């Protein structure tokens, strides 16, 4: 393999480092072809570890000098390590000086120090710092950093690093310097530097404690008008963390810098957050409502890391969810709190759960399944997953459910009181929340609750109800199970908080009184399921109720509720819990999709939606009080990937055909209602990305898409014409892109005029062009036309494989997000995938490994897809020079 045979890293093998690093003094002479890095460190032996050699991590570095206490010393290079054995005895600190050079201009991996658009950036999480200098590159080694940057002033007028700026000035030969000191100890993965031609939006704020801080958002010249929303989001984040958790900004300044070449969304480097431009730049002309919401969420996420991840960090990378799961939960809570009204909060919750179920549930059921706290890995970059992030957030949410909102805040305070400035574990976090709430369900059940960290897989909760009219009782029997996952054939019962309500046949909420209780409790309650099987019996029930189970999606489980259509229709019409109301609509649609697939697996029968379902959807669409955003969610059919996960054997083409047929039938049956919805919601006034306005635009966009579908079948030109006019006249990107999407997804000929016009309008806006590429790569496949279009897009002058955003916009949109076009009977989609994985792996293994996961679920595929998919994976695995990133993914995929 290109990187050598990588060892398996196991959590159980963790040992503390043999040395601690107390201070790091770095001096950079920045040059794209040859950057010089002088690293002066003070180290001391760890008295708790037996004497060992010092083994420093390093990759693609040119070593020029090693000094110990100012004197030359012997050393050896052992693979990716610099090994020093003749070090001072005892536990007194000693100085180590290392001088290296590297070539940032050739760093296409975008890990370590690299050049993008003539500027310098770094990405050090998880193991990128070793590509800058030799170091103990692990998160439990926390040191104080002083950084001096030197560069040509004309080419790199802005020089940034972590912490506070303590000195700057001119040097000889047109160069200048800046010195930064971070007052907080940190692990190497939080180091950052930036140098280049940048401009900043600045805002001074005063904290609740009365301290003044400078907030800065740095971008390339010309993008400053797109930074207002990011700055507002940052100010809201600072204020929210102070108000909700009492956590204040702890630096004189806080900086965000945007770059277009970035493997991830953003990075929480202490005080100097480096962001993908996608999560910074926005104005009404170039960004959609979704972009605005994502920027708010990601800015919040990275700022919240300042405490949950930076001030308290991970002992080792197995504890990644300690910071990521917790911080995703915090950014979700932040966005819900900013949304304000209960309906807008509910929409945010539904959107988060939809991501979990369409991305994380399949991961839990596939070859890369792993616990929230993994037990082993080969390449840590492969474990920045939806399991660690989104499922990890659900685990934290369940903790809050079990101790209450105030109890959770108390637990957070105790967590920081105990662990501020240290590298700790998921167990330490859970223990703090439990200890702050003695007597709570979490404290009592903590050992069992922590199975959420150690057991992979998505639990299934089977619920069945029995009504006894004579006794006026309703018995709800609950059984939990969890299927085997790689390395974990048997699972013990989980702790499952279960939100529950009972609805009368007329939709009224019933009071809940267990047989053991003296008085009823009105409305919603949360019960805790801990056994493999248990029963709840409610009394004084006058008619058979409809159970509303798992309200608010109170646990990340699959509910097998055995609902009848009549029960689902009752929930859809009356449930006071917005999540379960939406879920009832999704289940109604899902049941029909699965039924049609099972009854007509040859695709020869005409699908006919029943009147009850159509009327239920009409009732939602025309409902006088439901929010537009909620209506759009209910009326959007389950994704093809989510439908596929409900089936034992998957024919992607058949799923696509059934879902498209259902979509077209809803379009025709509700044509008048869609027209009403569009005309009623299309005008939102001057652009504002608030929840109400965004919801109106979303519903109008869905209605326009449905009306264009009707027109495609009937040959009518009115609505495609209106969509094209809307595309031309729209006052914001959301409306413009919704209109373009309506034309493309309906396959109307006007799309051929709109697409080049859109490109001409936004040819200089990289993020908008990403949308243009992605829309075409993700278009419905009609006659196998998408793959040829994708190959043409890759030949487009604006396509650049080295840019992760652009690669994702075309290749990922096709392979990961367009199953109906990707899974072709001739296997051409799989051939394309294998070519791109290999091609990307030579440039950027991290991006390639994420693409490699597009075929994780190949074993579920029907023939001929299954055999062809395996052949494609084997084709990639046969390459002898694969990165460890890709090798791990394809090897696990092929494992029986």
Automatic annotation (TrEMBL):
Q: Which reaction does it catalyse?
A: Release of an N-terminal amino acid, Xaa-|-Yaa- from a peptide, amide or arylamide. Xaa is preferably Ala, but may be most amino acids including Pro (slow action). When a terminal hydrophobic residue is followed by a prolyl residue, the two may be released as an intact Xaa-Pro dipeptide
Q: Which residues form the Peptidase M1 alanyl aminopeptidase Ig-like fold domain?
A: 457-560
Keyword set for this entry? Aminopeptidase, Hydrolase, Metal-binding, Metalloprotease, Protease, Zinc
Pfam families for the chain: DUF3458, DUF3458_C, Peptidase_M1, Peptidase_M1_N
Q: Which residues form the Peptidase M1 alanyl aminopeptidase C-terminal domain?
A: 565-895
Root EC class: hydrolase
Domain Aminopeptidase N-like N-terminal stretches: 29-190
The alphabetized list of GO BP terms reads: proteolysis
Record domain Peptidase M1 membrane alanine aminopeptidase: where: 230-437
EC number per UniProt: 3.4.11.2
- SUPFAM superfamilies noted in UniProt: Leukotriene A4 hydrolase N-terminal domain, Metalloproteases ('zincins'), catalytic domain
The organism's superkingdom is given as: Bacteria
Q: Which GO terms describe its molecular function?
A: alanyl aminopeptidase activity; metallopeptidase activity; zinc ion binding
Required cofactor names: Zn(2+)
Q: Which NCBIfam families match?
A: pepN_proteo
What protein family does this chain belong to? Answer: Belongs to the peptidase M1 family.
Q: What is this protein called?
A: Aminopeptidase N
Q: Which organism is it from?
A: Variovorax terrae
Gene (UniProt): pepN
């Amino acid at each position: 393999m290109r990187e050598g045979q990588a060892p398996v890293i196991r959590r159980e093998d963790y040992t503390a480092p043999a040395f601690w690093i107390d201070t790091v003094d770095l001096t950079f002479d920045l040059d794209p072809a040859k950057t010089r890095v002088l690293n002066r460190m003070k180290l001391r032996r760890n008295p708790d570890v037996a004497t060992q050699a010092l083994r420093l991590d390093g990759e693609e570095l040119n070593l020029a000098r090693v000094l110990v206490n100012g004197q030359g010393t012997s050393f050896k290079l052992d693979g990716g390590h610099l090994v020093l054995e003749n070090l001072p005895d005892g536990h007194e600190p000693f100085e180590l000086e290392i001088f290296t050079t590297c070539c940032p201009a050739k760093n296409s991996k975008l890990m370590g120090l690299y050049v993008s658009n003539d500027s310098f950036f770094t990405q050090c999480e998880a193991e990128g710092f070793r590509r800058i200098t030799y170091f103990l590159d692990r998160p439990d080694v926390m040191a104080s950093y002083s950084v001096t940057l030197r560069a040509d002033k004309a080419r790199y007028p802005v020089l940034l690093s972590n912490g506070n700026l303590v000195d700057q000035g001119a040097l000889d030969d047109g160069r200048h310097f800046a010195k930064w000191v971070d007052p907080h100890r940190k692990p190497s993965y939080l180091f950052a530097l930036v140098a280049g031609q940048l401009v900043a939006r600045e805002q001074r704020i005063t904290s609740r404690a009365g301290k003044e801080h400078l907030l800065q958002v740095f971008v390339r010249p010309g993008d400053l008008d797109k930074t207002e929303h990011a700055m507002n989001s940052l100010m809201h984040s600072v204020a929210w963390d102070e108000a909700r958790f009492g956590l204040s900004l702890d630096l004189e300044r806080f900086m965000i810098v945007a770059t277009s070449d970035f493997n991830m969304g953003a990075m929480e480097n202490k005080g100097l957050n480096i962001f993908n431009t996608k999560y910074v730049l926005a104005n009404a002309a170039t960004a959609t409502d979704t972009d605005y919401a994502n920027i708010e969420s990601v800015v919040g996420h990275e700022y919240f890391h300042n405490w949950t991840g930076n001030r308290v960090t991970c002992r080792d990378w197995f504890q990644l969810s300690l910071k990521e799961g917790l911080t995703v939960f915090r950014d979700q809570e932040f966005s819900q709190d900013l949304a304000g009204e209960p309906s807008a909060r509910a929409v945010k919750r539904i959107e988060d759960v939809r991501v979990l179920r369409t991305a994380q549930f399949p991961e839990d059921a596939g070859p890369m399944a792993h616990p929230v706290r993994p037990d082993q890995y080969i390449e840590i970059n492969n474990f920045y997953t939806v399991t660690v992030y989104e499922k990890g957030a659900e685990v934290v949410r369940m903790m809050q459910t079990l101790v209450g909102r105030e109890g959770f805040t108390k637990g957070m305070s105790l967590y920081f009181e105990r662990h501020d400035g240290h590298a700790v574990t998921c167990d330490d976090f859970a223990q703090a929340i439990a200890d702050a709430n003695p007597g709570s369900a979490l404290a009592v059940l903590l050992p069992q609750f922590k199975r959420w960290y150690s057991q992979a897989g998505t639990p299934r909760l089977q619920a069945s109800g029995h009504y006894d009219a004579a006794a006026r009782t309703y018995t709800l029997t609950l059984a939990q199970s969890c299927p085997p996952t790689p390395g974990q054939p048997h699972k013990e019962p989980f702790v499952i908080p279960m939100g529950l309500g009972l609805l009368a046949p007329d939709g009224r909420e019933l009071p809940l009184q267990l047989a053991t209780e003296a008085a009823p409790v009105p409305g919603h309650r949360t019960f805790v399921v801990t056994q493999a099987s248990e029963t709840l019996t409610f009394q004084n029930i006058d008619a058979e109720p409809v159970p509303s189970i798992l309200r608010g999606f109170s646990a990340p489980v699959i509910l097998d509720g055995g609902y009848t259509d009549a029960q689902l229709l009752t929930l859809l019409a009356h449930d006071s819990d917005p999540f379960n109301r939406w879920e009832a609509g999704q289940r109604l649609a899902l049941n029909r999709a699965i039924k049609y697939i099972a009854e007509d697996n040859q695709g020869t029968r005409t699908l006919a939606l029943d009147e009850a379902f159509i009327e239920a959807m009409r009732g939602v669409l025309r409902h006088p009080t439901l929010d537009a955003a909620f209506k759009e969610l209910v009326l959007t059919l389950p994704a093809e990937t989510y439908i596929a996960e409900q089936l034992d054997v998957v024919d992607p083409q058949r799923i696509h055909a059934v879902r498209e047929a259902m979509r077209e039938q809803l379009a025709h049956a509700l044509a008048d209602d869609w027209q009403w919805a569009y005309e009623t919601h299309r005008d939102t006034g001057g652009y504002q990305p608030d929840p109400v306005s965004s919801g109106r635009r979303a519903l109008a966009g869905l209605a326009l898409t449905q009306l264009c579908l009707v027109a495609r079948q009937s040959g009518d030109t009115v609505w495609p014409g209106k969509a094209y006019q809307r595309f031309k006249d729209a006052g914001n990107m959301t409306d413009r892109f919704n209109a373009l999407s309506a034309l493309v997804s309906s396959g109307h000929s006007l799309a051929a005029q709109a697409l080049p016009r859109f490109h001409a309008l936004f040819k200089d806006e990289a993020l908008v062009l990403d949308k243009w590429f992605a829309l075409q790569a993700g278009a419905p496949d009609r006659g196998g036309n998408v793959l040829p279009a994708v190959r043409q897009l890759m030949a487009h002058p604006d396509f650049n494989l080295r840019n992760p955003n652009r690669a994702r916009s075309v290749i990922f949109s096709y392979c990961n997000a367009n199953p109906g076009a990707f899974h072709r009977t001739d296997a051409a989609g799989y051939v394309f995938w294998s070519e791109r994985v290999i091609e990307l792996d030579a440039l950027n293994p991290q991006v390639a490994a994420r693409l490699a996961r597009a075929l994780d679920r190949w074993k579920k595929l029907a023939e001929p897809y299954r055999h062809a998919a395996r052949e494609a994976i084997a084709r990639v695995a046969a390459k002898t020079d694969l990165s460890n990133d890709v090798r791990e993914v394809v090897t696990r995929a092929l494992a029986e």
